Fold 5-formyltetrahydrofolate cyclo-ligase.
Amino acid sequence: MADEPENRKRALRAELRERRRIRTAPERERAQTGITQHLVQLASDLDVGFIAAYLSTPDEPGTRDFLRWAAERGIRILLPISREDGLLDWAPYDGEDEEQDILGMPTPTSELLGPIAINGVDLILVPAACVAKDGMRLGWGRGYFDKTLGSMEGCPPVYAVIYDDELVDEVPAERHDMPVDGVVTPAGIVSFAAA
């Protein structure tokens, strides 16, 4: 059946959304501490000076403490802003005011840059519902990051930020789905071997 991968994705996303929703505040705090520590380690190991990341929502594994750390060290940061045409614009992270994009995702209020502004970054951090141990990422179903990653020439390392139990054996995948190079979880950094 042609819709089978999409139906499996939809069911898995619903399960993962619910798991995230019911995490307790202490679980989130412990996860936040580990994720921040490992994001700092990854950025330091890769000696990054320019990254593309995202502002986490309350249910997502937290990226905000890491972004503050990076900004304090002079690392340039771009954050995505969803467009109606399915592409991502980018805006510099200034640590100031936030608003919501067309999907209701938090975005900065700084200068809006176009889709190619991401070219030249040293590291890309992406959200994910879960990631398989072969690096295949299951996003939230709109394809914004898949389009961005699929269109880049000379793409830098791409890491998804997830909870430990969201690193799974396999995910349903379709031709347009893009893998990641690794994941950052509360427990550590996992890098996948290049295929």
User: Anything to note?
Assistant: The chain is about 30% helix and 25% strand. The longest strand covers residues 76-82.
